[in-house]
Design brief:
Layout lengths: L1 H15 L1 H11 L3 H23 L1 E6 L11 E4 L5 H7 L6 E6 L8 H7 L3 E3 L4 H16 L3 E4 L24 H6 L3 E7 L15 E7 L10 H5 L1 H22 L1
Parallel strand pairs: 1-7, 2-5, 2-6, 3-4, 3-5
Antiparallel strand pairs: 6-7
């Protein structure tokens, strides 16, 4: 039932939201910051509704680590489509997500994503991938945060919730070229919502834990050189700690 309700909600939201999207486009011609923030809050509200319908029982930890007055590079582990829904609803300011190129083919949804500064990455095309990274760098310079899932795809090793796929190094150039803070995010329990019993959505306890922002300038030259590996170690430690706490309780 939850799956059907979410499907109906998404369809209605995308269709009924088209006039609002058009209105926001007109407003952006006169006051772009206002239109950008309005679109952000609209989608965040929509995502919170989806989480409620899905039965997400969310615990957020260390929200105070998230800078509110500067653009950052968010990095998160990736096990579920709900990772995007849950984390985006918590962003304090404009944030574009880097998504797989296939999402650019979904009618209506792609319009919303483009208006929210999301970027579509084709990992089979290095030239296109570099253009995406350069655009993301410019977004950061313009004050728009970027979120990536460095594993590159959803981790489907459900028997080992502490596992992480190897991080892709290319996306870390966004932080290296701008000097922006990197904010690690670790999610646990999201695969229990949908992926483990696809295609049905089940209620689940989910924890979103933020790590302390990583300032690249304070790292050793070796860690700066292997930034992806360094960040993966940070997130692996966070994940193990959080899963250990869940087992205790």
């Amino acid at each position: 039932m939850r799956t059907i309700l979410i499907g109906i909600y998404l369809l209605l939201y995308l269709i009924l939201g088209l006039p609002l999207l058009g209105l926001e486009w007109v407003i952006s011609k006169f006051n772009r910051p206002h239109a950008d923030l309005s679109r952000l809050r609209m989608v965040q509200w929509g995502f919170k509704c989806i989480s409620a319908i899905a039965g997400v029982k969310l615990t957020v930890k260390n929200q105070e680590y998230v800078p509110k007055n500067q653009a950052v590079l968010y990095i998160g582990n990736h096990r579920s489509y709900f990772d995007i829904i849950i984390t985006y609803a918590r962003c304090p300011g404009l944030t574009g997500y880097i998504s797989k190129s296939g999402m650019n083919k979904v009618p209506i949804l792609r319009l919303w994503m483009k208006r929210l500064y999301c970027l579509f990455l084709d990992r089979t095309d290095p030239k296109q991938g570099m253009k995406v990274i350069l655009t993301a760098i410019q977004h950061i310079k313009d004050g728009i945060s970027i979120c990536i899932f460095p594993e590159g795809t959803r981790n489907k090793d459900y028997d080992n919730p502490a596992s992480l796929l190897p991080f892709k190094d290319g996306s870390f150039k966004i932080a290296q070229k701008t000097g922006c803070p990197i904010v690690p995010m670790v999610l646990t329990g999201t695969a229990d919502l949908f992926e483990k019993q696809f295609p049905w959505v089940h209620s689940s306890n989910v924890t979103l834990t933020y790590g302390k922002p990583i300032d690249i300038s304070t790292l050793s030259k070796e860690d700066q050189k292997h930034l992806g590996a360094y960040c993966q170690k940070v997130m692996q430690d966070m994940l193990l700690e959080e899963l250990g706490k869940r087992q205790v309780h």
